[in-house]
Amino acid sequence: MFSSSKDVFIHGVTVYGSCQGAGIYDAVVAIKEGSINADKAIKRVELSTDTNEKVYEIDFDTPVLIEKGKQYDIVLTMKGPASYYGEKGKSEIECEGVQFKFGKSKYSDNTTNEGRGQLPGIIFDVIPGPN
Q: Which residue intervals define the domain PHR in the entry (predicted)?
């Protein structure tokens, strides 16, 4: 679960790949608007990973508008081999003048939360104008 201090467009997310050599995942990533539980975007991909990279991008077909102050959930399902994951994540960061706040999603049914999980990054652009 996250919110931002400015309106942004999300172009995609980064995910961790296989920790057991080359691997193929059936991945689905969705952005849900928290207050109405509606999918703002959904992307299904077959993601091929190898041992050369730990992190891979999954891009949405069109940018997703994220409105400042609203809560959103990124829901990721990856079916495939065991993967790397991040630890010691932060509940709040600032990047490109935007403050992002993170929390545990109501959709999480595993150990993923703001401190530990499969999503190391959000690919975004700040929307110009009075934010």
A: 2-124
Measure the CA–CA gap between 112 and 108, rounded to whole angstroms.
6
Contact 12, 58 (CB under 8 A): yes
Cβ–Cβ under 8 Å, residues 61 and 51: no
Pick from 34, 33, 30: nearest CA to 42: 30
What ranges do the domains of the chain cover? 2-126
User: Domain 2-126 falls in which CATH fold?
Assistant: Jelly Rolls (2.60.120)
Q: pLDDT tens digits for 18-68?
A: 998 899 999 999 999 977 778 899 999 999 998 788 999 999 999 999 999
Q: Are 102 and 4 in contact (CB under 8 A)?
A: no
Q: Taking the model in full, what pTM does it have? A: 0.88
DSSP code per residue over 1-31: -EEESS-EEEEEEEEE-BSSSSEEEEEEEEE
- Please tell me the distance from the alpha carbon of residue 87 to that of residue 4, in angstroms, as a whole number: 22
**128 class by beta-carbon count within 10 Å (0-12 exposed, 13-18 middle, 19+ buried):** exposed
